[in-house]
Amino acid sequence: MVKAIVSTSEIPDGLPLLDDLIGAVVLQDVVWIYDVKTPNTAAGTALPNGPFPARAFVPNRTVYRGEILLWLQRATCPRWNTRG
Fold first, then answer.
1. Which residue among 11, 29, 30, 39 sits deepest, i.e. has the most Cβ atoms within 10 Å of its Cβ?
2. Measuring CA to CA, which residue among 4, 22, 13, 3 is closest to residue 53?
3. Nearest 5°: phi and psi at 63?
4. Is the pTM value of this prediction over 0.70?
């Protein structure tokens, strides 16, 4: 899903995000939220923390059902800390 949103957005600053998806880990707290943690091995992006500047809609037989929001955050989240 992340790859589809970023690659079809035609936003050049999003391309490094695709490189960093290799080795990514996904945690799912609830059905509608997926936390994707990347290994941060790619060059990084100039995009700021916050929503990725592209829109992805979820239709259901031509009826609008919702929107997918891709949120970027550089800061380390404590739940991903594996150092104890």
1. 11
2. 13
3. -105, 130
4. no
